[in-house]
Structures are given as structure tokens and as C-alpha cells.
Amino acid sequence: MQRNIEYPRALLYGSIAQDIAAGRLHTRDKTRNLSLKEITDKKGPVPIRFEVRDKQTLMPLGDHAAHWSSYIEEIIRGVPLYYPSWLKVLKKQKAALITDIRTQFDLRPHMESPDWTEIDAGIQQHLQKAYNTNKAAFKAQHWVIDPETGTYNVEKIRRARPEAITAEE
Fold it and tell me: Which of 4, 7, 50, 83 has its CB 3.0 to 4.6 Å from that of 88, i.e. a possible disulfide?
């Protein structure tokens, strides 16, 4: 049984926090969403339904709703983290994510419906939340304040960058 453990905020900025965070944070490599991949390899994109809730929030419904959030988290890891916010991510990258989602989920009926504008906005909201969560986790792990200066040691961060990130990123 896996438990979510809440750590005090102060602990997240210390050297112990790096060890803790390293064990519970995701990597930039794609995960293997095997059950969804197995289904789509056999049957093609799976059907997904959406319900637009009162505050324009999108709720995935149906047999494959559980796969939705894990797949969103998986594909968002391919978006570089150097953008200041989701709003600054290039439109062509966002379009590529929708194309990628369409390989796993059948969005065609939604794209043809009059509700597509709201559904697309909800999908973008899901992607934005996943991007922000991924970026915050990365920063919590790697952007640790130097206790001597009280600031970020950018040169140390650059020298100790994770293997999956290139110097250009």
C-alpha cells in the first residue's frame, strides 16, 4: 500500500529533502502506461466521455477515465520546463499533445460536437495542471536555496543537472 506523506515546507528546501524528493518524484522519461497501451494496440483509440461541470471544469467519464490523468501526466513530461508558464508553451507543442492524446483516446466525436470549445478548454486545463505540477516537482528537487547566501546557486544547479536534460534545455 502506497501512502502520500506530507513533509514540512522547510524540509523541502534542505539536503534531506533532495533524498526524499528523489524517491517520490517522477523523471522526465516516459512511463509505461501498459494497460492503456495494450488496449489501444489491440483496438485503437479508446472511447472517452466528458462532462463539463459548473465552473467549466472537465470531468472524464467512462471505462477509461482512470487512464486519462495518468496518460496526461505521461505526455506532459515531454514538454520542456523552461517556459515561465503553460500559456507560453508554443501552440504547435500544444497541438502535438492533442495529436498524441488522439492516438490513445477517441476525441473525434467531441471534436465534431458543438461542445468542442468547452471540451478543448478543459483538456488544456488538464494539461496546464499537469505541466505546473511537473515543473513544481522538478524545482522542489533541483532548485534548492543555498543556506549560506539565501539564494539559488545557479551554477551549482547547472553543473548538477539531471541526465535526461540537455544543456540547451
Answer: 83
